[in-house]
Amino acid sequence: MSTEALQWFKSTYSSDEGGECLEVATTPHTIHIRDSKNPAETGPTLQVTPSAWAAFLATA
User: Fold this and answer.
1) Helix or strand or coil: residue 52?
2) pLDDT tens-digit profile of 39-49?
3) Name one Pfam family in it (predicted).
């Protein structure tokens, strides 16, 4: 799936002060994560499973 077709939203763990913002998009089997400062199609993204994302959030 193209990251362009995903519905991206700012993570609730990101601050409103800028500089440390993540954007997240979900599909049934994948959580897509990217830096909001580089949201272009060519920017890097990280894909993890929903269980890995839940484990990450549990430690945050």
Assistant:
1) helix
2) 666 678 899 99
3) DUF397
